[in-house]
Structure to design on (431 residues):
């Protein structure tokens, strides 16, 4: 059943969920291609607009975290159109602008918040720029120059107490130096911390343009699977309950589940020519094993992780499949998970999954603000942008929406097994 929907403009980005004003009730935040290109903040329970801020990049995403310790979240966004000069912005929980810093050119950028240097002060990673999260001052710049699409990840891969930054197909030290490069670069690149072997240190999986590449902590390439499309956000979880992580990706009108050795377990047809949209995972049917949750050009799909069978297809969705990924959270405090997803076509609505009828005891999606825990995440001009991607339909700005579907979710998988249960900007490893 429909809970709520908003139809004020096209949504190309991944929604994030956080209690930004510390009232015990989650808000839903997203960028939208309205006439003024807005950062939108919705009441999670009923979908009413709490506030909006104009002039953000409506193809890029958001991050939120309490970086000054006042109990309220700051929200981080970017301005500028694709492949043009950008600025990074910080807003307080009421929408007031705190600071703005000029950065380089970018496209479909997702900020990430973390204490990279381990000094108790949070930084914001926006492409190659590492900014002081409280002031916007540039702390340092990574030796990287690109306006490729993607989302940085900050994680301690080698468990030495210092955090690495994963960006494009590169891994950087906490001081900013390049540690290693893994696989090919390209237009769209998404890194994922994973753990595929018996040692406690993490490995890194890069979904790049042309290849899915797995590298060890020291940069040694372990495995590679090739394709002929963009990179995307990968769903990482133990989908078949065998005790090992698998990797779910959408490629060239086919959804593929890879084993940890990058051999294919199964494939399922989808409607997506670009292969850029990301996917996530959630235990929809309460059997202890997560399903794949994915939004293609025409439908929201829930796919059985073991077999690849489509167990739920929701048609209230259209998309050009840019870098957006569905998000799952309890946004109304009823103990059940809602599936939030942006649309940028003609169909819209927030839907409840009628197949699941049991009420479940899951934790509300209230952000516990800590320096290393940015809000759930896990993509200007005065007019809405109309991006183009080979193989994707041209989106329309009218009739588009922020949408969601009631999942009746059982329990969220841990970040170590599923980095996209929350949107991309919040992905982190828990080794």
């Amino acid at each position: 059943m429909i809970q709520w929907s908003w139809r004020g403009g096209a949504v190309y980005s991944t929604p994030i969920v956080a209690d930004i004003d510390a009232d015990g009730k989650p808000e839903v935040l997203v960028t939208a291609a309205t006439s003024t290109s807005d950062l939108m903040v919705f009441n999670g329970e009923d979908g009413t607009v709490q506030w909006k801020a104009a002039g953000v990049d409506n193809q890029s995403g958001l991050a939120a975290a309490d970086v000054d310790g006042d109990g309220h979240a700051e929200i981080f966004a970017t301005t500028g159109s694709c492949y043009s000069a950008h600025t990074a912005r910080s807003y307080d929980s009421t929408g007031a602008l705190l600071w703005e810093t000029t950065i380089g050119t970018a496209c479909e950028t997702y900020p990430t918040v973390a204490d990279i240097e381990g000094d108790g002060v949070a930084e914001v990673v926006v492409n190659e720029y590492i900014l002081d999260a409280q002031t916007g001052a540039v702390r340092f710049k990574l030796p990287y120059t690109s306006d490729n699409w993607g989302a940085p990840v900050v994680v301690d891969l080698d468990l030495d107490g210092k955090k690495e930054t994963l960006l494009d197909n590169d891994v950087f030290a906490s001081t900013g130096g390049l540690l290693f490069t893994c696989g090919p670069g390209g237009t769209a690149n998404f890194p994922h911390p994973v753990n595929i072997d018996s040692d406690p240190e993490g490995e890194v999986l890069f979904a790049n343009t042309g290849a899915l590449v797995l590298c060890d902590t020291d940069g040694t390439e372990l495995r590679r699977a090739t394709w002929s499309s963009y990179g995307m956000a990968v769903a990482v979880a133990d989908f078949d309950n065998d005790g090992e992580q698998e990797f779910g990706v959408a490629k060239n009108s086919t959804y593929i589940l890879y084993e940890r050795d990058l051999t294919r377990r199964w494939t399922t047809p989808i409607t997506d020519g670009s292969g850029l949209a990301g996917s996530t995972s959630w235990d929809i049917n309460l059997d202890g094993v997560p399903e794949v949750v994915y939004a293609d050009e025409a439908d929201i799909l829930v796919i059985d992780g073991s077999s690849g069978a489509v167990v739920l297809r929701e048609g209230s969705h259209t998309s050009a499949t840019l870098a957006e990924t569905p998000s799952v959270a309890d946004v109304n405090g009823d103990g059940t998970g809602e599936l939030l997803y942006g649309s940028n076509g003609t169909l819209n609505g927030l839907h409840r999954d009628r197949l699941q009828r049991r009420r479940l005891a899951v934790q509300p999606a209230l952000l516990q603000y800590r320096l290393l825990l940015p809000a759930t995440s896990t993509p200007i001009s005065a007019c809405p942008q109309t991006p183009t991607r080979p193989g994707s339909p041209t989106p329309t700005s009218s009739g588009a929406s922020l949408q969601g579907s009631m999942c009746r979710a059982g329990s969220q998988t841990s970040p170590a097994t599923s980095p996209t249960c929350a949107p991309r900007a919040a992905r982190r490893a828990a080794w």
In short: Residues 16-387+396-426 form a domain with the Methylamine Dehydrogenase; Chain H fold (CATH 2.130.10.10).
